[in-house]
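Study the following:
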Amino acid sequence: MNKVKLALIGLGKMGLSHLSIAGAHPQVQVVGACDTSAMVIDFLKKFTPFPCFDNYKKMIAEAKPAAVIVAVPTKYHFEIIEYLLQQKIHVFCEKPFTLSHAESQQLTALAAANKLVNQVGYHNRFLGTFIEMSRLIKADVLQELHHFTAESYGPVVTKPQQDTWRSNANEGGGCLYDYASHVIDLVNNSLGNIENISGCLLKKIYSKNVEDAVYSLVQLESGLTGVLSVNWSDSTYRKMTTQITIEGANGKIIADATELKLFLKAPVKNEKFTAGWNIQTVGALQSPVDFYLRGEEYSAQFDYFIAAVKGLEPNAINTFAQATYTDKAIQLMKQFN
């Protein structure tokens, strides 16, 4: 079986995670790893078999990858991805897609024109609980939807810190880009795209230049309304915790990364659930992966990208086109800053 020649640009936390998953993938040959940090490149040269570069254009010219993972700060996404698409290279990029809705649309059009596989790293779409949540909504088990609450909390910034990319919105820093984008994307995918923002509070807690919390009233294209509540300065959580609650005429869904709880007032035809509470754990819902790192969803999204590059799966999950709607919602919220 021909392996996909893959390269990576950006070897921070997420880039190294992707490199680990890619290096273990039986259908992938890592032909290049690129970063501007001499320390990172020296380490990889010493302890890994991967060809290393400090200039991504040189890497593309010499390694000639068919696909590239882009895991650099978001402010560099547009110029790098545009160059890769012009070279007819399939692209997986970390979230958020870009810092501009207009730039996201431009890259989406370029990828479509060149018929290239494209994907953005919103890994929650590959979690079994959220996959089942989306299925239940499409199956209309709640009937008419009334309201939703989309939440995410975690201990990213819990004290005043020195300036880094996280403290610079122009580099993709801040709770809105880093945390809320995940929740916005889940809402767009499962319930419909966010169209209007009735109000938005971007609150500073420890940071000087970016928001640490986002509280927003949103309306979807369908007219359904809901609340977005996200805080990356909540030290009562050990790690990022995301939850979606959806209320409807026939009950309620509460889904997070560990379980899905479904309350039905009445059973639904062709579904196995009874009236009252039905609970499913992620272990029962999650499809297995060959390589586990941080969570099955990270390997699952990469497996899907490679399968799409090889023509074994449709390029239909977390596409650039879908990510533009998340970027649009972020842009609307930033107007309240």
DSSP finds ten helices and 14 strands in the chain.
